Amino acid sequence: MSTNRPLFVAFEGIDGCGKSTHAKRTATGANARLTFEPGGTPLGQVLRQRLLAADEPMTSETEALLMLADRSHHVVSVITPTLASGQSVVTDRFFGSTLAYQGYGRGLDLTSLRAATRLAIGECRPDLTIVIDLPVATAHARRSPSKADRFESATLDFHERVRAGFLDLATTETGWVVINGEQSLDAVARDVDAALAAIGWAS
Ligand code: TYD
User: Fold this and answer.
1) 93 lines ligand 1 (CB under 6 A)
2) Residue 108 contacts by C-beta under 8 Å, 6 or more apart in sequence?
3) pTM of the model
4) What is the structure's pLDDT at 3?
5) Which atom of ligand 1 lies nearest, measured to the CA of 19?
């Protein structure tokens, strides 16, 4: 049964997992607002450009704090007002990406990242977080051969830690589901729809 309450859904996963395709399909099917991180606001676009620039060194702490600044602004200026207006929101990445990439991937302390996340997003938590999971090598092969950004140019080991991080988070966080991204697009879409139906998503 679908709910009348606007819902907030996040898609997560490693680079090249296919989450953007499914986030877009999900939002379009339900007339929900599609948004993304980093960069879902004008300020966020500036942060995204600097965050992805592979030739601008920064510490992992700086990287995490810029991701969180982007998210905090995104929550206040896009996500919360959209939900308050009665429209559902689908975001391509949310707080799970900071825990997975900067925590499990870069090795920053997860307890500190969780505390900083609380500061950044307050009570704004997704009703559902969908992790599209697939092996790093498969995701890597799917990526377009364009110039690699800071994260795409990181080692395979880094991406393995990020993948393991998402899977670990899915066992501890509430409202997370993992979907096998190695299946056909249609099969992944079916699994996504089943997860959405369980929270009363009207598509
Ligand atoms: P994304 O826009 O999803 O990648 P793409 O360019 O393939 O569409 O995200 C850009 C990169 O930012 C991605 O490699 C993951 C990284 N990232 C983090 O490291 N931490 C975060 O908190 C977020 C939101 C993204």
Assistant:
1) yes
2) 60, 61, 64, 102
3) 0.96
4) 73
5) 3
